[in-house]
Amino acid sequence: MKSGYVALIGRANAGKSTLVNVLVGEKVAIVSPKPQTTRDAIMGIITEPDYQIVFIDTPGIYKAKNALSQTMAKTTETTARGVDLILFVMDGHSGLSEGDIELAKRYSKSKIPMIIAYTKIDIMPRENIPADVKRLYEEGIECDVYPVSARKGINLKKLVAAIVEKLPEGDRVFTDDIVSDKSEKFMLAEIMREKILLKFDKEIPHGVAVIINTFEKQENGVYDINLDIICEKANHKAILIGKQGSALKEVSTFARRDMEKFLGAKVFLTTYVKVKEDWRDRPSLMDGLGYGKKSKL
Ligand SMILES: Nc1nc2c(ncn2[C@@H]2O[C@H](COP(=O)(O)OP(=O)(O)O)[C@@H](O)[C@H]2O)c(=O)[nH]1
Ligand SMILES: [Mg+2]
């Protein structure tokens, strides 16, 4: 039996969370076209008779601008140190950046084995692939590169086989019915945050945190969910709510539908928008919103 931890490392927006969700076959991490969608290290687990892979999706690598993104960058670094394999995710569609190369070089020199998933090949000319692979080798990054598409499911079996081959022999860490280390409550808050990321632009979604106040199954089988959307500024609150509540109603409807899919039951959802001035720069507030040091791996 092979078993081990695999950290997904790479630029924000490279496609790490999408890849983990597809490999695990269930949504364990939210996805959006905006960078910094993932804030925590999230585990996604595949268990088969002869192997168990515990993926750890990280927030990714980028310049930290505030206390929240500093914590996120640290989460990525700490996660990468304690694993059996690094799965470096590169966005083939947007092309190799100097930052990608520098980072990949650094990780390839560490003692932990590394594999590169070169993703999004469904939306790029295939003839660009060999040039990028050549460039990586020329830069001295001599690990296996797997061109894949998470969205179209291209080459994923080969990628998984390569991962399993590099994992150590060992017993499974998790029982075989578990796909994630996160609670239902965490996923519900994340689903709300995903819908906000998809609808709103710029700083608004990045300044949002979601707190689940109530999560209860009623006797009729319907889940009663009550949550707060915390934003940083009064004018953000106005935008989040929209004209006569239209914006909030729209994102709440999308969130409720996804929550129902996730829970397999009807949901009665109530949402409130509250302001906590500049919470991303205030570590004491971050603790309360679940992004403090205590809540890290
Ligand atoms: N076409 C295509 N888009 C992808 C693929 N993987 C991810 N994306 C998109 O890339 C964006 C960022 O993905 P995400 O998984 O959140 O990236 P992360 O920041 O690295 O976790 C999202 O809009 C995804 O839908 C892929 O294989 N093909
Ligand atoms: Mg992500």
Please characterize this protein's 3D structure:
This protein has 297 residues and is an alpha/beta fold. The chain has two domains: 2-166, P-loop containing nucleotide triphosphate hydrolases (Rossmann fold, 3-Layer(aba) Sandwich), CATH 3.40.50.300; 184-295, GMP Synthetase, Chain A, domain 3 (2-Layer Sandwich), CATH 3.30.300. Helices cover 37% and strands 22% of the residues. The protein is built from ten helices and nine strands. The protein has helices at 16-24, 67-81, 98-109, 128-138, 156-166, 184-199, 203-206, 234-241, 246-263, 283-288; strands spanning 2-9, 42-48, 51-57, 85-91, 114-119, 145-147, 209-217, 223-231, 267-275. The strands form two sheets. A six-stranded mixed β-sheet has the order 2-3-1-4-5-6, with helices on both faces. Strands 7-8-9 form a three-stranded mixed β-sheet. α6 (184-199) runs antiparallel to α9. It is globular. It starts with a strand and ends in a 9-residue tail after the last helix. 39% of the residues are buried. The mean pLDDT is 91. It binds guanosine-5'-diphosphate and magnesium ion.
Short account of what is shown:
By secondary structure, the chain is of the alpha/beta class. It has helices at residues 16-24, 67-81, 98-109, 128-138, 156-166, 184-199, 203-206, 234-241, 246-263, 283-288, and strands at residues 2-9, 42-48, 51-57, 85-91, 114-119, 145-147, 209-217, 223-231, 267-275.
Relevant terms:
297 residues; alpha/beta; Rossmann fold; GMP Synthetase, Chain A, domain 3; 2 domains; 3-stranded mixed sheet; 10 helices; 9 strands; 37% helix; globular; binds guanosine-5'-diphosphate; binds magnesium ion
